């Protein structure tokens, strides 16, 4: 296949399962295109994803703010009681001189997850109003760079492991943040599983680029 310029690459799509190269063709709203080789879904075009994604992202952001605003756990040990919040944990690392670890933790469990949900809200809003051709491109590129660095789920599992180890040594009370963090991680995993980044590129192409051509 001869490509005349780099833009021609935008019309090609590779199957993630069998690596067969396909030429992208416009499909109807709500339809999906499948690989001719293995039958795996190549891409979907569904405008319902916009409102669906926007409401999930806003809900996720609310739970994330709640998870950071309230105590995660309260630990009673030898008559003293201490409660832990996510910002307090990061601050404690900085205070103890672990600047690099603190910075890494701040990015992985606070800054990046917050950025991902804000970017999602902005993207779905832009798609909804059919605006921001250039901005949506930058946001999508940024999203694909930072998505792998969202590690709130790993943080939640590590808290659970730490709490299991503390059972018997201390009295543990789960705070509001613990439950809101679980809901946030659930929403986060659901968005990642249900709305693939390639579908967001497809929505951008159909809603913002094709709009200019027509
Ligand atoms: Zn395939």
Topology:
Layout: E1 12-14, E2 21-23, E3 31-34, E4 41-45, H1 48-69, E5 73-77, E6 80-84, H2 86-95, H3 99-129, H4 133-146, H5 152-166, E7 171-174, H6 176-194, H7 197-213
Antiparallel strand pairs: 1-2, 3-4, 5-6, 5-7
The structure holds zinc ion (ZN).
Task: Compose a concise summary of this entry.
The protein has 214 residues and is an alpha+beta fold. Helices cover 60% and strands 14% of the residues. Helix 1 runs antiparallel to helix 3 (99-129) and helix 2 runs antiparallel to helix 3 (99-129).
Main β sheet profile: 3 strands, antiparallel
SSE order, one letter for each helix or strand: EEEEHEEHHHHEHH
Q: Measure the end-to-end span.
A: 28 Å
Q: Determine the mean pLDDT.
A: 89
Using only C-alpha atoms, the radius of gyration works out to: 22 Å
| Helical residue percent band | 55-70%
Structural class: alpha+beta
Shape: elongated
The total strand number stands at: 7
Strand order of the largest sheet: 6-5-7
Which molecules are bound in this entry?
zinc ion
Beta-strand residue fraction: 5-15%
Number of helices: 7
Poorly predicted runs: none
Number of domains: 2
């Amino acid at each position: 296949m001869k490509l005349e310029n780099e833009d021609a690459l935008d019309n090609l799509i590779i199957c993630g399962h069998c690596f067969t190269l396909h030429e992208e063709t416009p499909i109807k709203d709500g339809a999906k295109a499948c690989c001719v080789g293995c039958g795996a879904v190549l891409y979907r075009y569904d405008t319902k994803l916009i409102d669906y994604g926007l409401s999930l992202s806003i809900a996720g952001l609310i739970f994330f703010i709640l998870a950071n605003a309230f105590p995660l756990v309260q630990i009673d040990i030898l008559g003293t009681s201490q409660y832990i919040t996510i910002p307090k944990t990061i601050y404690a690392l900085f205070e103890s001189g672990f600047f690099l670890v603190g910075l890494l933790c701040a990015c992985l469990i606070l800054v990046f997850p917050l950025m991902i949900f804000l970017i999602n809200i902005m993207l779905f809003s832009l798609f909804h109003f059919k605006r921001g051709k250039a901005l949506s491109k930058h946001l999508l590129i940024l999203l694909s760079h930072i998505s792998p660095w969202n590690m709130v789920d790993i943080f939640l599992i590590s808290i659970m492991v730490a709490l299991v180890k503390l059972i018997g040594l201390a009295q543990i009370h789960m705070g509001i943040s613990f439950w809101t963090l679980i809901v946030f991680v659930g929403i986060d995993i659901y968005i990642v599983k249900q709305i693939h980044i390639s579908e967001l590129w497809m929505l951008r192409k159909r809603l913002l680029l094709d709009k200019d051509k027509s």
